[in-house]
Amino acid sequence: MADVVVLPNLDALSEEAARRWIEIANAAVDARGEFSIALAGGNTPRSLYQIMASPPCSEQAPWAQTFIFFGDERRVPPDHADSNFRMAQETLLEHVPIPAEQIHRMGGQGLARTAAQDYQRTLEHHFSLGRREFPRIDLVLLGMGADGHTASIFPGTRAVSDLTNMVMVYDVPQSGQERMTLGPSVINNARNILFLVSGENKADALASVLHGEYRPSTFPAQVVKPRDGSLTFLVDKAAAANLPT
Known about the structure:
A six-stranded parallel β-sheet has the order 1-9-8-5-2-3. By secondary structure, it is of the alpha/beta class. The mean pLDDT is 95. The chain has seven helices and nine strands; from the N terminus they run βαβααββααβββαβαβ. The chain is 29% helix and 19% strand.
């Protein structure tokens, strides 16, 4: 069952997400000596990354023990305006002391299949995975589009139902772009999953995802059901407008 927390606006949502990030990160380091996180792209996380890059949050997070991964990426060069990596780099990564070798971006260039295989090998190596095992990421950040997509798992695409591949690359008809995304099985194996949902244009989809019929091919965010972890939606009042009181 998802925990839904309604905040007044995007600023309050981002502050709460930062508080939870720091809490989860420090607990992970205390328990296992490191903290792994999969970052989200899009506009909503930008404010969170800026908060995490500034005092006091930048002084409270265990950056030296933090390992950065990405939930999805557009297949563009890392300096492209559409790159999720570039957004995270400019708002967060270049402002905090994370060792460069602990930042694992998704490949935006080259052969698609090779890029997916390379990222899977990165996950397998870091998490010391055996056959048919999935990584146990400490925190996966997710956004949600007005169409109910999350990461780059879009309505009506094979990514919704692919429970085998850790990483997928495919052409997304809705955006006309090739995208790379973590698969549902990786996301659902996380210890903590945190959705950040802001804006009145998300209200219909959010109500359908949380309270509508289970139709993940129509609303892919519904595929996010952690096996053994927490699932929290941080939403602002505008996005929560159609939720039951």
